Queue: 2 jobs
Job 1
Amino acid sequence: MPAAGGQKRERWRPPRGRHRLPPEVIARSQRERLLEAAIRVVAAKGYAATTVADLTREAGISRTTFYAMFDDKEGCFLAAYDGIVDALVRRVATAYEGEDEWPQRARAGLAALLEALTEEPEVARLALVDVGSAGPAAQRRFRAAMQRLTPFFDEGRDFAPGGRNLPANTSRMAIGAVTGLIADELTEERAEDLPRLLSDVLFATLVPYIGPEAAAREVGEKER
Amino acid sequence: MPAGLDQLDEPLVEHSQRERLLNAMARSCAKKGYGATTIADVCEGAGVSRATFYELFKDKEDCFHASMEVALADAMGRIVAVYSPDKPWATMVRDAAAAFLELLASRPTFARMALVEAPASGERAFELYASGKRVLQSLLERGRDDPVEERAIPSTAGRAALSAAESLIVGQILAGNTARLRELLPDIVYITTVPYLGQEEALRQARAAEKVAVPADG
């Protein structure tokens, strides 16, 4: 939730007035504050209702500083969005690469994704649901973000015995299935239930590559 | 009957001011998005006065909702029409998917409104979109040849498969490839049937779908 304008914050800020911090350090900290503020404000008010004034107030920066960094609200939101996606993809990649066989890699990656989204439900909603209402550029950004998961799914093709014969769009569709199931939970305000979705998203990921019997076996393996 | 689709059989009055406004709303949303569309855009596109707009609709959202409602009823009617208890399930899924893709490809304005704008344009529009999706889901899950209880597939498999197909379609729409949506039929047949039929049979169905002559509009 965004704090009211004049409220004291605990986060560190460079002291006002004359100080000795190098300008690039101050600029970076202002940018980071602004991007964090953008996520909080858009998550709370929605993209359409958010104004540049909301963002500068929440971040505690001046309008001039804002326009030195971004052309408009959209540019700022998209930069914030990219930051969220980067963090999510890094977390998924780390978990995924910690396992050997593809189905276990997929399980670990999906579990990490659900865990990250559960920790920050507002960010999750913003990343997967609200982004749809932030205009065509944001929607395309969302598609591009989803496609960054493609390499993790494409490995299923190499793993599956008949992987070469699968439709060219298999990975795209599997990603759509996973994000669709997650978005449905978030739309129903059930972010806290996301970890329980693991067996369903794992099945949706595996089934086009290895078929329903093998997918159900893999899903069942660690559950009992 | 899912909520939101029970009042959809209202006939379109040809060339009425209301119909012109509904079409203008859909066109403007396709062009600049729902968020950026103004009532002035809609009135201008329809050649209808602002006063008339407010006689017919409460506000922009009301008009969008009505536009989506009429278009969706028509779309669902066409898709549900392919259902027949005599057809094998996989054939029915293929025909429904073909009818849906044909509809979207031939009506890009509706395609954008229904799949890009409606899910992100307020609660009422979202509910309509969701009700349309539930119809497709029940169509997919109805009359499967294979009783699902015999396999340990999750109850969300149908919903997941639909989201997969939707994501592929929306990606093409956003990339400006709406006219080429028909080409996705084999992939969509594969992803919607594989949880139920297994890989070998789903691939066979997908290959068969490559040869399907897409039925003409209507």
Job 2
Amino acid sequence: MRFKKRFSISGFIVLAIVGITLSAPLLSPYDPYGIDVGEPFLGPSWTHLMGTDDLGRDLFSRILYGGRITVLIAIAATIVALVIGTLWGMVAGVQRGWVDEILMRTADATMAIPQILFALVCVSAVGSSVISLPIIVGLLLSPTTARMARTAVVVELASDYVVAARATGLKKSRLIMTEVLPNIAPQLLVQLSINAAAAVMMEASLSFIGLGIQPPDASWGTLMLQGYGNLWNTNWYVFFPALVVTVTILAFNSYGERIRVSLDSRKSST
Amino acid sequence: MSTELKVIASASGISRIFRGGSNEVRALDDVSFSLYEGKTLALVGESGSGKTTAARILLGLDTPSAGSVEILGQTLGTLKHEELRLLRRQIQVVQQDPFSQLNRRHSVQRIIEGPLLAFNVGDKESRKKKVIELLEAVGLEKEHLRRRPHELSGGQCQRVAIARALALDPKIVVLDEAVSALDVSVRAQVLNLLRKLQQERGLTYFFITHDLGVAHYVADEIAVMFRGRIVERGTREDVFENSKHHYTIGLLASVPLANPQAVKSNNEQVQTLPSPAEGDACLYRTRCAVGMDRLDCKSTTLTLTKGTATHSWLCHSPQGS
Amino acid sequence: MKNSLIVKNLSISVPSAKGRVAVVDNVSFEIPAGKKIGMVGESGSGKSLTAYALMRLIKDPVSIDGGEIFLDGREILGLSSKEFRLLRGNEISMIYQDPMSALNPIMRVGQQIIESIQLHSPVSKSVARKTAIDLLASVGIPEPESRIDSYPFEMSGGMLQRSVIAIALSGEPKVLIADEATTALDVTTQDRVLTLIDKLAAERGLSVLLITHDLGVAAQFSDDIMVMYAGKLVENGSVDQIFSNPAHPYTKALLDSRCDYTIDVNKPIRSIAGQPPRPDNRPNGCVFSPRCAHAEPRCSVSVPPLTSSQGRLTACFRADELFQVGAVN
């Protein structure tokens, strides 16, 4: 019943995007690296749904494969952000005192630095790969997650049922795991969704300025960069990657918003 | 209290001072009380009188700034972490808000089972048996097991909270405004239930309430609190029929009775809003019709007057003197 | 006597899984000018929604399904919101349980009273300020000249409720609705605030509708009492009739289940079994019949109308019969 309430168009689109991109090898009509599948710069047609690129590669296939990379990086980054951010925030919220101060001031300081600048420094330090990118993006997203997790934990710890559980003699670690965590999980889910949108955005931005995934592999950001470079002779080349990035970000954001609203309404109805 | 009664817990001279910047709030100021086995002590007072702080200290959720608390022969504060945890088995709590004191994501079964899980009592089967037994003891049905708090009424939630409090067979139950949020008819049911459970299980109740009627009904001994101090203490008859402290008298006169013929006793409290008094002398003096202009009320530190074996008060000029 | 407020067949509904269900069901009553009426009921009885309807504060998804409300002879449910805005505050005012809901937390209390005064009458700011100080003094706030510049957070609960009363009275209304206005206050503060409302009502000839779950508050304050149960008005009579000689079994049971310091502590309280029905699960016939000790088969078939019995209005088939044998008093 609760699941039904959460089902929405945005949720469906999120699922569809993740499903389709992850099954790219099954769905792609052409080899994304095959330079002999068609003429360069062909416009969209029934044989090449999104046309072909400067080397004659099928753009639709490249977007599917690129999406797989982007979505995988986004998922990995989101998980990194969730794990680090939740731990970070929970430790601060549970310990309070000077531990809280240090952890939260660190979060504030990190959030004050422009993310893209931070990412630039990191990428130039460790290079960009499918391993380093999720970690860098995930690290970048973790302070906001930490902030949210801390607030949620502090609110929960002050609630009556926690007092009851503590009075019961429940151990603190168990209290956090069995009583508090299930209650902040929905809020974490909201953050997860917002983080996913931000991760797609960040990966695309990094690739767009050439610091992301390197050719011949392509992510949506790389494809946008290539399309942008060929803007003078095609317009669909940049249009399609930009479109999928926009739709994905919107879908993740509105899905998060939807969960948040349904949580708020449930809270106010009791 | 007669001497053959066994003291099961006691607080002696506890104070709790909260400091915020330059402000200092004495939530509790040299408060002493004892809980006797199988009996009920009601702590009565208005908001900010310190009664909830006293409950938190007894539950080990807060530490007094001064004074000591002894529960079942063990002194809080000297205990190791694990010893305190084991002691907590013996002292459980039911709070005011029927809904928020239950974890909204857990089922009734899981909620009542919680304390048993916390102490790894029994196996799955025996725990379930215990939960059903508790459920029946508080007047709920097996069909409620799978429900979640929001599917229950306020009275039912309060029964679940009581069942949870009894899960570990504690000696003492702290009832922190446990019936205050309930409707009249449901409150009566829960009060009757609490009384029945006390008789059946020999429970000791520490009943925190702002409602004099509830205190009158449940308590063997009543302590009236005013701004962190117990200003009067005694049996039901002492406090209600032979009140000595003017605050108690004012409090009683303020309670509206559901009887239009009840002639309101002369309410001695000052009708305008007086500024609160500070210091070690009587804190009620600015609201007290008797003590307002008396010099000793303003300047002399109060000491507890023991009128009878059961009745004591903290007042320079008690009623009838 | 002239009635300042007449409510006829008011029905209010909310959406539920079973479609729209009535939370206030065909309620009618009158408030004579200058009278203090207490409306008592447990949570979910529909008493607060009735008050909200009087202030036209019912908002989607709750809706008024029918009925008429006459304020000083004028039907108000049919008025445009612009027309009603002229009446709100001038003719009818309301105070709530939580004074903070009626105050702007970041605005000085005095400023809020002044604005309210200027909203209702075209006076200069300095005149309004003087009126505001007088109002604060009349609601018993000490040193009103300096308190007028306080912010809400600088005031205690009792003082805030007094300030809200001052705002409610700033338009010199004829009807004052107090919705659980003293519930959140300590008893000693409650006593003072009730005494204050009582005094102001007498001075200004106000009609007061006091909505409360506290039987004691209603008994001490009101001239007449209305008893609500599960969306129905079940009994309406003078304060003596209701509290000394109730005719409806619910009124009787409610009085029996109270716990004040005058009851016999050696016996269990006579509580009502079960709990009030939820709006989407109201029983057939008399809404109280499943919990009623005197219910007969007909009680669960048809709805007893609110009729005159024993000198007051009661919605019970057996009211006269039970009253005579002394079953309910």
